[in-house]
Amino acid sequence: MEKKFLQTPSQTVGPYFAYGLTPEQYGYDFKSLVANELISPLHPEAIIVKGRVLDGNGEVIPDAMVELWHKDNEQEGFGRFGTGTLPGNEYLFYALKPQSVDCNAPYFSLIVFMRGQLIHSYTRIYFADEESLNEKDSVLNQIPEDRRNTLIASKTGNVYQFDVHMQGDNETVFFEV
Amino acid sequence: MSTILFSMDESVHPPKLYPDYKSTVLRAPSRPMIVLPQGLSEMSGPVFGDYQLGEFDHDLTKNSIVNGNPLGERIVVHGKVLNELGQPIPNTLVEIWQANAAGRYVHKVDKHEAPLDPNFLGTGRTRTDKDGYYCFYTIKPGAYPWGNHFNAWRPNHIHFSLFGPNITTRLVTQMYFPGDPLLQYDPIFQGVPEKGRPLVIASFDLDRTEPDFALAYRFDIILRGDKTTPFEKL
């Protein structure tokens, strides 16, 4: 196999994505292809995954877009949400909690897009209540111990909180996929 | 082997931190990326449920008409979505958004004092066909000022969002127009290494123009990798 073409370079999503990529969330008159309900909020096992995206000054970013991707052996899901509409500029998804695959810790994939990023950032959301699987997980163990907790969402009831820190002492671990 | 051959090509993509584009300074991750073995989730495609695209989703000159046709220069923007081997990526979603002919976005945050067009929303989407081909009708977007530095203007551009087979092929980019004198001053475009810059500039396509109707621009998009299987469920 031989490469024939160069990859088209990435460019920033910019500040004005909302009426194209998340139109209904922001009140634009255009049908959204996808929103933040990977599962109905009324589903008895639905969890909420939410959080803020913060810049290098610790300021909450009000114009990011995040995509939640998920696949395990039983279900897959995809959601999209901008940080410009909820109080506190949080993102929020309703989903079913992912299951463990091949004895690895379960996780969501999260892609972060925003003005000020020429190329998107990719991270993972692991779960605080999966302690034993997290401890054995090969990906988590590859990460220096003092940064591992940046990938673990805290749990309160059925709500998982996962803030994304672009920089700073708590900078979230981002991955090259 | 294939993970090396088809990794992110840093010789064409912009760096995360590019201080000339000022908002990267506080928003670009500062620590090295952790290289990830690809798990099941990275191999998953986006799932859009069973939503069908609307009849005029690909035609921005028609998809938000209120009381007439949108103002500006009507254009065809078309091309193929391919992988690095040159194989077409069929049935993949292509989403676009842009300013109107006056350089104004519909987005509520855009405060540029140029007129909105009541008949132009400036967003559309389509799916590639079995040969990886897509085609939009739209209005040529105008340039607009922004606050990055004194007298900063964005060149005419159309934003593109693409998926391809899985997370590793996800791409958000911008299409520029050939010969635009603003390109040399634009830190977002200049953030792309020189080798990659021609790849985000469309070519004028006389063959695809529609006489008495619209000029045409060709913009082929190369997604990372060698995967062509259409996992997307639309």
Automatic annotation (TrEMBL), chain A:
Keyword flag Oxidoreductase: yes
E.C. numbers: 1.13.11.3
InterPro entries in the cross-refs: Intradiol_dOase_core (IPR015889), Intradiol_RC_Dioxygenase (IPR050770), Protocat_dOase_a (IPR012786)
Keywords for the protein's UniProt record, in alphabetical order: Dioxygenase, Oxidoreductase
Gene Ontology molecular functions: iron ion binding; protocatechuate 3,4-dioxygenase activity
Top-level EC class as recorded in UniProt: oxidoreductase
Keyword Oxidoreductase: yes
NCBIfam families the UniProt entry points to: protocat_alph (TIGR02423)
Record's protein name: Protocatechuate 3,4-dioxygenase subunit alpha
Organism: Sandaracinomonas limnophila
TrEMBL record, chain B:
Catalytic class of the enzyme: oxidoreductase
Keywords linked to the UniProt accession: Dioxygenase, Oxidoreductase
Family recorded in the similarity comment: Belongs to the intradiol ring-cleavage dioxygenase family.
Superkingdom assignment: Bacteria
Protein name (database record): Protocatechuate 3,4-dioxygenase subunit beta
Pfam families named in the record: Dioxygenase_C, PCDO_beta_N
One record GO biological process: 3,4-dihydroxybenzoate catabolic process
EC number(s) recorded for this UniProt protein: 1.13.11.3
GO MF, one annotated term: ferric iron binding
InterPro entries: Intradiol_dOase_C (IPR000627), Intradiol_dOase_core (IPR015889), Intradiol_RC_Dioxygenase (IPR050770), PCDO_beta_N (IPR024756), Protocat_dOase_b (IPR012785)
Intradiol ring-cleavage dioxygenases domain mapped to chain residues: 77-105
